## 1
Amino acid sequence: MDEKKIQEGVRLILEGIGEDCTREGLLETPDRIARMYQEIFGGMGKDAKEHLSKTFHVKNNEMVVEKDIVFYSTCEHHLLPFYGKAHVAYIPDGKVVGLSKLARTVEVYAKRPQMQEQLTAQIADALMEHLKPQGAMVMIEAEHMCMTMRGIKKPGSRTVTYVTRGIFEKDTELQNRFFQMVR
Ligand SMILES: Nc1nc2c(ncn2[C@@H]2O[C@H](COP(=O)(O)OP(=O)(O)OP(=O)(O)O)[C@@H](O)[C@H]2O)c(=O)[nH]1
Ligand SMILES: [Zn+2]
């Protein structure tokens, strides 16, 4: 990440809104924001493969659901936060990953400029690609600050997205089991 560029950009924005970048309270702000972006956009250039390549063999191919994974992401249209919970499920095909790796996969894709639909799909696609389960299903419920603190201003409204992959795609009974488990 180019911290210098971020700092310059923040200075330009502050000047653009009529602020004085040399006043005491703002002196360190460009540097702080550059450091913060390292963190909140820390998924840039990362690959979920890193987390999903270590697997454990299992005999039992029952559905695994990791639910209520709290995440914070940034909407790519306004660069404002959207945040909520991700529910990640898969049906193994002889192997599973460590539970924490599902949350780590969510983090890789949440920590980028994002759209919720794309985030939902990327998590499921990463599971399918690297773990090769029989199927995967991901659901995300989130509040978008671009919908609450500005624009249409609808606090409390939540956006719900889900994707199905593999055997989840056509099996509505399986989908319903997932919905029941994450409720
Ligand atoms: N589909 C989708 N839309 C999003 C997401 N995050 C923000 N948006 C929407 O992106 C749209 C951008 O619309 P524009 O009309 O280009 O921008 P705008 O004038 O700021 O829109 P308003 O928010 O309606 O004021 C808005 O409707 C946002 O609500 C997301 O994750 N997915
Ligand atoms: Zn937005």
## 2
Amino acid sequence: MAEVILKDLSKSFGNDVGIADLSMTIPDGAFVVLLGPTGAGKTTTLRLISGLEKADAGEVWIGGRNVGSETPAQRDVAMVFQQYSLYPHLSVRDNLAFPLKSPILNTPADEIERKVAEVASVLQISHKLDNKATALSGGEMQRVSIGRALVRDPSIYLMDEPLSSLDAKLRTDLRVELKRIQANLGATLLYVTHDQIEAMTMATHVGVLNEGRLVQYGTPREIYENPNSLYVASRLGLPRINIVPADVFGGMPSGVTQIGMRPEHIQQGEGQEAEVQRVEHLGDQARLHLMLKGHAITTIADPHTTYTPGAHIKIAPKNPLCFDAEGVRIS
Ligand SMILES: Nc1ncnc2c1ncn2[C@@H]1O[C@H](COP(=O)(O)OP(=O)(O)OP(=O)(O)O)[C@@H](O)[C@H]1O
């Protein structure tokens, strides 16, 4: 596996900015998750690293090589797309074996068989190895396309929402497996997701993109606990962080115009009186949806809470994040 360095990378499509001056180091063995809303430039970043797209400016370094003039094959990256891309006329076994049969790798037959069996087992598709790729459900096809990447030992795995088409149970299983595989192999991974739990549990690093720019890069905990802007604070956390004008609670230092409160950072029993709008019982906890001076606020409560809609509850922020009028974090 390898370290990947992006230096001042830019790519536009006509008037649309794909990526702007993106610099980022993906350490060898890191699991880096890219977060950002649609159009932020996540897929473009993966395509620039893989060589499917050519940068307007800047450099991509993989394992100490500037790969600007290399083809995708020479770059030795394994990419998994959101939508499966299989060879329909081949069996699942042959689809999985295909990357290992390339003349560059020249893998011995017994090694191919071992790897295919191992990956099929991890992805829970061993019983489908002799099926035609087309005789599979959508979720199974996606597992085969993940498997086609995992049989290889590339410089970096590039994955674009690989689990988004799977059902919840399989998604949870594969999330754990992917993380285990990455940790065991020491694999380097760049991974795009909109899924909060995937980002928090799998990533060693999270990069937050906004309109093609990297606006913060750090561990998931740093991004969650110490976001540098309101934009970044809103990217991680479910339920989302509550943002209210500073004067709703008052007592904030000058210059603070908005405060951010994670649902778990709201003190109950003191402060301003809010009205309960809705209570969601989730089993291990309850979510309270409150209204305070026209602002919707979500917080969490004991799973056996007896609050019902219409009840009143006093709340106060506990260590809120403070932002200025532009959304820049000021404390
Ligand atoms: N082939 C293309 N032709 C024209 N514009 C493109 C092309 N690829 C990307 N773009 C534009 O570049 C910007 C970034 O797109 P990109 O696909 O990288 O975003 P993304 O963060 O991956 O979004 P999503 O979450 O929807 O996949 C968008 O404005 C998009 O319209």
